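Example 3.
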Amino acid sequence: MSDKQKRGLSVSSEGEKAEHKAVLSRRKFMGDTLKTACGTALLGLGMGTYSRQASSFPAGTIRPPGALSEDEFLGACIRCGLCVRDCPYDMLRLAELGEQVALGTPYFVAREKPCEMCEDIPCAAACPTNALSHELKKIEDARMGLAVLIDQEECIAFQGLRCEVCFNVCPVQGEAITIEMHHNRRSGKHAMFIPVVHSDTCTGCGKCEKACILEEAAIKVLPTHLAKGLPGTHYRLGWEQKDKAGGSLVKPDIEHQYNLPEGVRYDYNQGGLELPPEAKLEHDTPFSSNPLDSLKKLQNQENK
Amino acid sequence: MMVKSSERHQVPSQQAVEKKGWWRAHKWFILRRVVQLGILALFLAGPLLGVWIVKGNMASSLTLEVLALSDPYVMLQGLMVGHFPTTEGLIGIAIVLVFYTLVGGRVYCSWVCPVNIVTDTAAWVRRKLGIKVSSQFSRSSRYWLLGLTLVLPLITGVIVWELFNPVSLMFRGIIFGMGWAWMVILAIFVFDIFVSQRGWCGHLCPVGAFYSLLGQKSLVRVSAYNREQCDDCNDCFVVCPEPKVIRPALKGADKGIGSLIDEGNCTNCGRCIDVCDEDVFKFSSRFKG
């Protein structure tokens, strides 16, 4: 049995031979095409899956100002490095193969070199695809991440020591980080000067993280989605609603009835116990509040 | 001097050197390397010497703060996600598109792309070692891959191919830092030597596939204008990265096919011009034939 017969093709005339040749080349074409298509599909599956993993942007690395959300950024950034070149402080770099950041995309590490917040935002202006949005006009509006005083055990402000370095280096000074005074319970008589970050003004530039005096920074810039909570959309704060409405939206509470002696009342705002007016009258006591009275008494006794 | 054909194909330029001299047997090869390395040097002058002539990389660059150039293939991937380039980006794409449409799309491959140096060297090593075994991919695989790289962004929302693309990887690596990218380059080198002849650039690379589409009707073309002088030495086929493009022009006289190599996949590398000791080929234009 010849090879062709085995494959179900009988050979008889010249015309049929040509036809069989066509069939075979068609088969070969179909086979090759199928092979390539399957290979391509498998490759696509692999690459697609990998791209999902590679799109997890690690905390500790920060995108340049104006960067779109990470999902969008990976679809828009073409990894040209023009932002890197136009950064006058040379703090941006492109991820190399083997790093955790998606290959070729720009980022910086705050602890090494933070963003200097140039007023003209040259990195974003250089971007040819708007992956760093040109709509960002004021660097103060950048939200590269959010600083979080993440270690409240090691931060020396919580030991009652004066530091405030993060507060002092903050480029949005006095707004993004403020100092709040708390009672120092260890000494009992001092204040603790606690830095507090405000998310409505913090740009995530990372200067505080860079400046933190600890071996490992206690204040760190995190991706906003890791740093921020989000209350339920139905959630309302009573006092804010009261201010907004200009008065209480519910009936006032019935005043609490304390079981106290007649005439005594309790001022729960600040006054504490309030005695009735007659209780406050001066009593005739053996002891005068005026020390001269005591001397006069002694003199009187001696004279007698 | 007669040379055995097997030996001859290990050194295809030998006859040409003897007949035309070393320079004319290597002219286009040397010019290409000068251009390829020159482009890299322009990009490297900034970071290495502080002389900022060109910024960025092949994906997008800015020359002398004026001339913006962008890779249309990379931009197209972004477009598939739905991201529209800025005006500078669009101008850059337009310039590059027009340029390669005129001079031949795959001029990018042989005159610009740094991977070409790797795969040309691999092909040379392969000839030297006399390796004949090659696993066969269809040369159309690259168009499948091209399609894939344009569909994946549509599905995932990520420019997936740029996580792998050895072309951008190598160019960016040289200018911005390699990391482990040299492993990929080495892999392509080894693949081209031992696994598949002209495997990467000639069969798989979707970047080349994209540029071949640009160069379908380019002005600048190689012509086998002197084809009756061909002595069938086969040297041009041995050195050509896309040997299929030569045959119609060189051997198609009796079928009425013109002497112009009019094929999008001809990279206009000019190596056939170099190695032909009969001076069959020359650079020409599509209007001259």
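Residues 4-9 of chain A have pLDDT under 50 and may be disordered. Chain A touches chain B through 47 residues (CB under 8 Å).
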